[in-house]
Each structure stands twice: as structure tokens, then as C-alpha cells.
Amino acid sequence: MAPMARIASGVIVLLVAAYLMWFYVPGGQSELKRMGAQTEGSVQYKDSPPGTDGRPILQVAFMFQDGARMNRIVTRTVYDAAVWQRLQPGSKLRVFYLPDKPDSASFEGAEGMASPRSAALKFLSVTMLIVGHVLLIMGIKAWMEQQKPAARPPAGQQPAK
């Protein structure tokens, strides 16, 4: 692959990764994230009942106090297994809720705040950032090698002809 093609490929991959990471995934934010009130909540319990396809459905029940100072308990499905593993009963989390619909509350990584594919898209964009940087570095190194002047024979005695 020509150096300029590597550089162009690296730039394109980096631009797509940046778009995914900073515009596409955050642009899909829910109404809760954009317009909801924030408060602190605590995890009450976790559960993972089997779904219709046999895979577990990761659920978390959390409690928070709304603007009217009423305690609310809401259960949400968590799409990201790493988020579900990290949460333990009693642990604190940042809760988002709409003041006029407090029972629709959620938290980062859970139903209502994230799409089922948002974690996969974040992983894809980080992978693309790495690949884009590698392509860019390889292209720049190859281009710099092409720019070096051709090696000259050492000065001094020339072989007899």
C-alpha cells in the first residue's frame, strides 16, 4: 500500500471513529439524559432472570429521592454486562429522572439511557481510533523513507574502469 494511501486510510478511519465516539453515540441520548433532573440513588438489588432466548436479562433495582422528596424504586434492564457487574447492592449511582414522570428514571448504561448497541459502538470506535493511528503512523514513516535522498557512493577513490 502506498504511503499516501495509508495516510488517507488512517485519516478516514480516525474521522469515522471520532464521529461515532463524539457525535453518533452521544447524539442518541435519551430525553432523560438531555432534560432530566439528576440525583444520587443506591442499588437495592440485582437480578438476571433468563430471557426468552435463554440468555440472562441483567436487571438492577435502584432507589432515589425525587424532587418531591419521595423515595422511588425503579427496576431497569442493563445492556452493558460490565456496568451490571460493577454495581453491587448499596452502591451509589447517578440517577436521571423527569420531574413529571419520576418512575421513568434510569442511570448510565441502563434501559432508557442507552441503546442496546451503545457499548458495542463505543468499543468499535476505540478500536477504530487505534487502527487509524497505526495506519497513520505507518503511512508517515513510509512517506518519510521515500523522501530521504538516495544513498551516494562514498567520496574518495573511484574504482578503475
The H-and-E topology, N to C, reads as HHEEEHEEH
Q: What's the overall geometry?
A: elongated
CATH topology of the largest domain: OB fold (Dihydrolipoamide Acetyltransferase, E2P)
Can you list the strand order of the major beta sheet?
A: 3-2-1-4-5
* CATH architecture descriptor of the largest domain: Beta Barrel
Task: Give the count of structural domains.
Answer: 2
Rg from C-alpha positions?
A: 27 Å
Largest sheet: 5 strands, antiparallel
CATH class value of the largest domain: Mainly Beta
Number of strands: 5
β-strand percent reads 15-25%
The average pLDDT is 84
Q: Which residues form runs of ≥5 with pLDDT under 50?
A: none
Kindly name the structural category.
alpha+beta
- Number of contiguous helices: 4
Tell me the span between the first and last alpha carbons.
40 Å
Q: In which range does the helix fraction lie?
A: 40-55%
Protein model, in words:
Strands 3-2-1-4-5 form a five-stranded antiparallel beta sheet. The longest helix is centred in the last third of the chain and has 30 residues, at 118-147. It is elongated, with a radius of gyration of 27 Å. Strand 4 and strand 5 (101-107) form a beta hairpin. The protein is of the alpha+beta class. The chain folds into two domains: 3-25 and 119-142; 30-113, OB fold (Dihydrolipoamide Acetyltransferase, E2P) (Beta Barrel), CATH 2.40.50. The protein contains four helices and five strands, in the order H-H-E-E-E-H-E-E-H.
The gist of it:
41% of the residues lie in helices and 24% in strands. It is built from 4 helices and 5 strands, in the order ααβββαββα.
